[in-house]
């Protein structure tokens, strides 16, 4: 079985520190200290009860991942880099009161409570594949609404070209934000036409339930044709801007993480191939699909662009 080496799915600064440590005292001393980047999750959330879904597969016939897998196997560095530790650390995360400000280059800036968002934008089910840049994937039945509906309500100005998203900054609740390697708060961005695409949603739930904190409660972005780190969690601010935003990962490792982050089996990450992926719950690897299988819907957004340069 072709597994991705652990060094290739670890944050670069931790990976490089590990290599220096190995040179200093040897591999045996390191054995008990490694970060489990894509190991099986062990933390059990207190209420792993899936709600009803309309179907049990995605449009390609692949089965949904289980509610337990989705809610215990999480990348959320604001809490920890340990996937199996996120659910535990996020258990008491406060999502009420919660407001989201929408501003920047808009005619009608707003600050909206999450309760009003739930009332104003009824959620619909969207079964999407999630592909992590680390080489694993899931099929998730999200609940959410198209981002374009919210953007239309604030009326973007003519010079708005990008949408910038920002996560809550609260190191008391999110201990991972004490790590000074990263430029907190977490920031991500989309081109305006990407944000307005019907596949792009703001998610408020999954498997018929409201989001749990480890999945980005109470509001997260989902952009299914891009690597998962683009789908920013626990959003508190959305701004329309004229210049391309610099995301947290672009600031941390610009040679590894570009602005577009489109799933592309032909463009490897500098430390590993993206040609295959491992679906959580499966053993064997499967071929990675261009644009995560959504090429028919989104390839036209990038017509004429060199996707190796615009990675």
Describe the protein.
This protein is α+β, with helices and mostly antiparallel strands and 311 residues long. Helix content is 18%, strand content 21%. The chain contains 9 helices and 12 strands. The chain has helices at 12-25, 27-30, 67-72, 86-89, 114-120, 147-154, 192-195, 248-252, 295-298, and strands at 99-104, 110-113, 124-131, 136-146, 162-167, 187-191, 201-206, 209-210, 220-222, 235-241, 276-279, 286-287. The strands form 2 sheets. Strands 3, 4, 7, 8, 9, 11 and 12 form a 7-stranded mixed β-sheet that branches. Strands 2-1-10-5-6 form a 5-stranded mixed β-sheet. A hairpin with a 4-residue loop joins strand 3 and strand 4 (136-146). The model is unreliable at 1-8 and 12-46 (pLDDT under 50).
SSE layout:
Layout: H1 12-25, H2 27-30, H3 67-72, H4 86-89, E1 99-104, E2 110-113, H5 114-120, E3 124-131, E4 136-146, H6 147-154, E5 162-167, E6 187-191, H7 192-195, E7 201-206, E8 209-210, E9 220-222, E10 235-241, H8 248-252, E11 276-279, E12 286-287, H9 295-298
What's a quick, concise take on this entry?
The chain is of the alpha+beta class and 311 residues long.
Keywords for this entry:
globular, 9 helices, alpha+beta, single chain, 18% helix, disordered N terminus
How many helices? The count is 9
Q: On the 0-100 scale, what is the average pLDDT? A: 88
- Find the structural class using helix and strand composition: alpha+beta
SSE pattern, N- to C-terminal = HHHHEEHEEHEEHEEEEHEEH
How many beta-strand runs? Answer: 12
């Amino acid at each position: 079985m072709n597994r991705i080496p652990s060094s290739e799915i670890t944050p670069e600064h931790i990976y490089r520190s590990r290599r220096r440590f190995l040179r200093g005292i040897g591999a045996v001393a390191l054995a008990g200290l490694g970060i489990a980047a894509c190991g099986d999750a062990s933390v059990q959330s207190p209420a792993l009860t899936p709600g009803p879904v309309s179907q049990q597969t995605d449009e390609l016939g692949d089965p949904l991942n289980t509610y337990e897998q989705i809610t215990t196997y999480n990348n959320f560095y604001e809490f920890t880099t340990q996937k199996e530790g996120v659910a535990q650390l996020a258990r008491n995360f406060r999502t009420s009161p919660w407001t989201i400000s929408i501003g920047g280059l808009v005619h009608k800036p707003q600050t909206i409570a999450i309760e009003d968002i739930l009332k104003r934008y009824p959620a619909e089910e969207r079964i999407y594949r999630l592909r992590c840049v680390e080489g694993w994937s899931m099929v998730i039945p999200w609940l959410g609404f198209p981002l374009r509906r919210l953007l239309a309500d604030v009326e973007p100005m003519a010079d708005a070209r990008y949408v910038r998203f920002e996560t809550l900054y609260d190191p008391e609740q999110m201990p991972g934000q004490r790590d000074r390697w990263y430029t907190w708060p977490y920031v991500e961005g989309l081109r305006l036409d990407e944000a307005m695409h019907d596949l792009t949603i703001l998610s408020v739930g999954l498997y018929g339930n409201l989001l749990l904190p480890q999945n980005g409660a109470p509001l997260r972005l989902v952009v299914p044709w891009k690597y998962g780190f683009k789908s920013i969690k626990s959003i508190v601010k959305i701004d329309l801007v004229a210049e391309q935003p610099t995301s947290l990962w672009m600031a941390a490792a610009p040679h590894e993480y570009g602005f577009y982050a489109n799933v592309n089996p032909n463009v490897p990450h500098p430390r590993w191939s993206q040609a295959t992926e491992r679906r959580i719950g499966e053993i064997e690897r499967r071929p990675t699909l261009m644009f995560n299988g959504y090429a028919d819907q989104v390839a036209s957004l990038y017509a004429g662009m060199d996707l190796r340069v615009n990675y």
